[in-house]
Amino acid sequence: MLSPTTTPQNSGEKPMREKPRDLPFPLNIYQSAIGKKWVMAVSGLMLVGFVFAHMIGNLKIYLGQVEHNGVLDYDTDHYAETLRNLLVPIFPEGVVLWGMRLGLLAALLLHIHSAYTLSMLSRKSDNAYAGKRDFLAANWASRSMRLTGPIVALYIVIHLADLTLGFGIATGEFEHGQVYENVVHSLGRPIVAIGYIIANIAVAVHIYHGMWSAFQSLGINNPAYNTLRRTAAQVISGLILIGNVSFPIAVLTDIVSI
Amino acid sequence: MILDSKVPSGPIQDAWDNHRFNIQLVNPSNKRRFKIIVVGTGLAGASASATLAELGYEVHAFTYHDSPRRAHSIAAQGGINAAKNSRNDGDSVFRLFYDTVKGGDYRSREANVYRLAQVSNNIIDQMTAQGVPFAREYGGLMANRSFGGAQVSRTFYARGQTGQQLLLGAYQQMMAQVNLGKVKLHTDQEMLEVVLKDGEAAGIVTRDLTNGQVRSHSAHAVVLATGGYGNVFYLSTNAMACNTTAIWRAHRKGALFANPCYTQIHPTCIPQADEFQSKLTLMSESLRNDGRIWVPRSTTETRRARDIPEAERYYYLEEKYPAFGNLVPRDVASRNAKTVVDAGQGVGPLKNGVYLDFATAIGRDGRDAIEERYGNLFEMYERITGEDPYTTPMRIYPASHYTMGGLWVDYNLQTTIPSLYAAGEANFSDHGANRLGASALMQGLADGYFVLPYTIGDSLSAKLGTEPLATDDPVFKEAEKDVNDRTQRFLNIGGTKSPDYYHRELGKIVWEHIGMGRNEAGLTQAISEIKAIREAFWKDVKVLGNGDSLNSSLEKVGRVADFMELGELMARDALDRSESCGGHFREESQTDEGEALRNDDDFKHVSAWEWQGDADTPQIKHKEELEFEYVKLSQRSYK
Amino acid sequence: MSTELNLTLQVWRQPGPDAPGSFVTYEAKGIPDDSSFLEMLDIVNENLIERDVEPIEFPHDCREGICGTCGVMINGRAHGQEKATATCQLHMRKFNDGDTIVIEPWRAAAFPVIKDLIVDRSPMDKIIASGGYIYAPTGTAGEANETLVPKEAAESAMDAAACIGCGACIAACPNSAGQLFTSAKLWHLNSLPQGQPERFQRVESMVHTMEQFFGACTNHGECAEACPKEISLDFIAYMNADYMKSKIKNRAKSAQI
After folding, report:
1. CA C140 to CA C138: how far, in whole Å?
2. Over the stretch B469-484, which tens digit does the pLDDT of each residue have?
3. Among this protein's residues, is B249 annotated catalytic?
4. Which pTM value belongs to this model?
5. Which domains does chain B have, with CATH numbers?
């Protein structure tokens, strides 16, 4: 490759932004938009993995009370206990869980930061049409990413306060470790249940475009299985939608109760 | 004036090698001290700019497009010839040379054509190295095909977009040099004047099409690679902006214009649909391999094509030329189409086409086979006409496609103005009176890559140590004033008709009288008609807007003005050349079989016309006699 | 047989780069349905000239869908409603009598309007200049058949190389991203044996130039829908993969291929 003596010279206007000084690897990846998309895809897939596992784990709510070591116990609470005791005694109790939590938090922050900076980049690059646009490929999911994203972020905060930390929106009956009862108390409030349903629809829509988009951003591409990428995104987001929306409905309809 | 072709003496096989050895070289470290202007960024211009910059020259490339990649070389479909003999079918440099001279009906310069055939192989190698995705065989080797009636398979291609891929290759190579600062690219700049100092080219004057700024650019040498003048016909397969202005401005400054009447008409284009049609679209000639050409026998036929019984169809090519049938050469196919349409047998709403019918081929090979061969062409046809060629025969008619004539150049591609060069379709050099299919791309790249970069050194070496003329020199100021005055004059006429109107009217005359068939009465009439329309044009043309912003009417009007003068010269040249040869068919000079009849005794020469100072004084003709040592002159026959 | 259409046009008129623009309504009467979209504009312009109104400036040249000069937004779609068709190849028979057609230039911050419907697309040339080539100075090439290229590779490269550089992908993109254009050239060159030596520097260089001018891709897929040559979205994925590889390989230091 020929190294230019100057930046490409030509008639016409200047670049809208100059290339920043190169940071050392791997930070330089994050300096480019494609690199940011890559980070966004990896962090997004981590978060999707979490959401999916979280949803599967929560299905235990339907098992109600199960006998463990001779004690009748809510299976959900037992599951939560198991998570806290992962890899004990190699690590002390709760360490692995906190490690995963910090990992997810980092992924979330990177996901939000890359999304924000890329949105700003696009906003600066765009020159809106004066007439109406007619979109063909861009669907509601892809065009609402910058709407569903903030909704999901807000939901995460509320959800943590409600069922993990037990403050703010949490019910008065909140008790650490009593997962099953906390859920039933919280979602027993119709307005909260509806909020959860709306938020989870946003989650699923976000994941639907996000997953397909992640394959593309990561360059995971082969015409032989490309159609599967859409299908995979549909199946995963569909399962997450059904699973997650079922919880508030189940509580409201007393399928799940104390 | 004596036209010195500078053809090297000695055996033709060694001529180019000897010439390269004998011409003056420029020391590598001195090359950067020379500034070269290249006007045009098509195949010839882009390849010349890139190569000259690689050699070390300071190159300034000009295009009137917004990007060099828009040049009309991009539209070539078929392919590019090379004498690689990769099919083991007996091809050779000598055969390509021989075919080209014969195809040009013995009106080209042997040494030039031989050199073209010699470098043809290097072009393929060069373009492949640059990543042009030529078609491949399954083994990974280069594929090629027989094209345009050639008896050997020597045409390399990239789908139906060979021109596009070659142009992009040359463009990318040039852009690499732009990135390095070795080529200074000037987009949206139209060259409107060649500037001479003491009889030698010193630079050009351009107008910025986006804001009207007129600027001078000086250099040690100027290369015009500005394409052909096929748009003189108004309707042609050329792009809308293709024009003669650059070479015509050079002609007016003293460069001789050679063989203007040699134009090529392509037989398979989609006929005009209405008065407002702006251009004609070419359908690949390969369609003639399977399509049968016919018209109804009756001039009052009104039935749909498929309802006309076999006995009432006139397969005129198959009847007249049993041996070659529908595959007769371009000029023969074109002329015969004109004959039947003139006789009132034409088809379509305007009765201006002939049928190209695939029913027989579909019946024989099945629709799938035809779809595989021509699917994309059928699709293109349907998009333009709204008719389905699988069920209704295509309608085709000839259209202006390529111009063999151009600025007269010597073996070094230098025009009669010292330091002014012409490359590609802009010069007249290699195709004689008719061009073979897949040879235009070859010539453009040969000139730009392998000829000009060497030969230009010959005139440059004498200028070592001199600076390009300052652009505030009086000759530049005067040229700028001429350009500005002309612009003002157009804006001030304030007539009633648009430039397009006059272009269309000019095109009708040129097509009617200087098209496929020409005769003395018609040509004489054309001269007076063009003169009349030119006078009307200068009194009555209407250009709105101003000269300080983008104004396409203003761009157009200048081009039409130059086409007017060129059209007249074409008629004069065609009138003067009372023989028929290649694409130039004088009805007075034909064999009993209706074939073009040459007159080698009187016309075995290049007609090069010299401008006489104003448009009302006819140009004076100079002759360059052609010698044929290696090719035997013979009469073509396709019976 | 040709029928005639009467249409209402709303055309973006803007006298110059710095002047304000707006939609102006014109009646287009008696348009033959055999004419192309650009010929329709020709007819409108002829009428405007007759009425001493400056004609509409619109981009066009070859009018056979290959030069890439033409391209406007027609009713909110780049190159209009017909798939895989450049503006010049769109014909009026695809419209109905009485239709209103809104015509607007390409929009992107890097595509400033020069006049009316004509925009400056020079950043696309800059992307090519920054690495969209295989450097092979004239005269250095070996025999073409010395490097074998599998037929499938040549075909795939050709699929990408078919790009005409019209800018519809950027115009159609809600983010004004240049991914489809850039990735098509990258795949053309990076998928061929001849393009391997410069492969990773090429991808870094072209991507960095692209990002200086254009927005960030969010994988809507509008670009591929708008593309008159049906360039595939797959090339964007290939570009993303190659870009990461180039960063990880760091060939300048490790000389890996």
Report:
1. 6
2. 999 999 999 999 999 9
3. no
4. 0.95
5. 265-401 (3.90.700.10), 474-604 (1.20.58.100)
